[in-house]
Amino acid sequence: MTITEAEIRERTRTLVAEVGADAGQVEFRSAQWRAGLAAVQYPEGKGGLDASPKLQTAIEDELRSAGVKHHSMLINPIGIGMGMPTVLTYGTNEHHETHLKRIFTGEDIWCQMFSEPTHGSDVAGLASRAVRDGDEWIVNGQKVWTSLAHHSAYGMLLVRTDPEVPKHKGLSYFILDMKSRGVDIRPLYQITGDAEFNEIFFDDVRIPHSNLLGDVGDGWRVATTTLMNERVALGGSTAPKGSGTIASLTALWEQKVGSLSSGAREAMRDRVSQLWIESEIVRLTTMRSRANAASGNPGPEGSVGKLASAELNQKIWNAVMDLLGSDGMLHEPGYPLSRNRGTSGYSLSKAFLRSQANTIEGGTSDIMRNILGERVLGLPGDVRVDKEVAWKDIPS
Ligand SMILES: Cc1cc2nc3c(=O)[nH]c(=O)nc-3n(C[C@H](O)[C@H](O)[C@H](O)COP(=O)(O)OP(=O)(O)OC[C@H]3O[C@@H](n4cnc5c(N)ncnc54)[C@H](O)[C@@H]3O)c2cc1C
């Protein structure tokens, strides 16, 4: 079906009129799913309309201007950004029926269990093992830095099923019910004082074979889909011009400008203007790379937005700290690393601390540069001496 932007906008306005901008999260998002306006490039009956992914921005735009409360993917960032496209691409019809809509509505929060204590950037070398036992697999091992695991109903789990073959060929990818017996989730506290992520221990965890995504040994290919979508999801906001992180800086600039000396004012004006321009470039680039994410398989161009937005975010929060001066050293009651989280208010100094993770999470900036160098610019590849060696023979 060829559907125009004007029709999509009209359908979105009709949805809002019928359900109401103030409807609850699950009610509104269920109706959005049924209307095919959840992920417009997905098949009809599965949250989409088989339409161009470029039209999704028009839907977001309409929902935002209508004041719909629950339109952000942040209600379930890993599930919506990475789980949905992976399940859509590699899942069976039964997986689609069970999971897609509940991820979108936020009824089931999802997490991603790839990183391990010794394998982050080199995730293909991971060591957690799954061994087949009839219609089930038995998993033992450990994951780390698993965001939102403590809230999650399901997780995307990458494990080694064959140590006899090279590292990329012996992996398999499962959907894990996080309430399974033998899953031990322990929070890890960050520099912000929050525990967004966790370490997870698996002790003889049983997973039904039917929870496999893709084939046995095909886990790397499935994981690549998840990772490419992660980079698009993390790659900056498509919110309106001048909003998002840069809005915090421009608001603070307006508040502080009168108190700056003329020299500091000139220098800071240049810096704020430059960061505003860079924000707009990243926003437009992100819109282009999201528009390419047809049916869940974006290419390496997602790494452009991820790299640029991570580094820009840090530059913006550094400028915010410089403008705050000594006030930037003040933190919320309960800091540091208090288990009494006290995080209800929006804190600029906390956002600055949180931004330090931007160039690590979802793949470091070094890894993004490697991907872009090799896969977009065609430069010579990184050194990979273990690529053809059986995983069990790689020295640890
Ligand atoms: C806030 C946050 C949330 C996260 N959430 C999740 C999550 O939900 N699920 C999950 O699975 N993981 C998650 N992670 C983990 C994240 O993916 C890893 O931290 C990241 O991939 C880096 O791995 P590492 O920490 O093991 O660092 P390492 O891989 O040990 O890297 C150390 C340093 O070496 C550099 N380096 C490594 N290899 C190369 C290379 N080939 N070329 C050049 N430089 C290289 C890196 O850039 C880095 O500077 C999260 C991390 C953070 C900070």
Structural commentary:
- With 396 residues, this protein is of the alpha+beta class.
- 41% of the residues lie in helices and 13% in strands.
- It has eleven helices and eight strands.
- The chain has helices at residues 5-19, 25-34, 56-65, 77-90, 93-105, 219-234, 245-256, 262-291, 302-324, 348-355, 365-376; strands at residues 110-113, 129-133, 136-144, 154-160, 171-177, 183-188, 197-208, 212-213.
- The strands form two sheets. A four-stranded mixed sheet has the order 1-4-5-8.
- Strand 2 (129-133) and strand 3 form a beta hairpin.
- The radius of gyration is 22 Å and the shape is globular.
- Residues 337-345 have low confidence and may be disordered.
- Flavin-adenine dinucleotide (FAD) binds at residues 111-115, 120-121, 145-147, 197, 357, 360-361, 363-364, 366-367, 370, 382.
- Flavin-adenine dinucleotide binds at residues 111-115, 120-121, 145-147, 197, 357, 360-361, 363-364, 366-367, 370, 382.
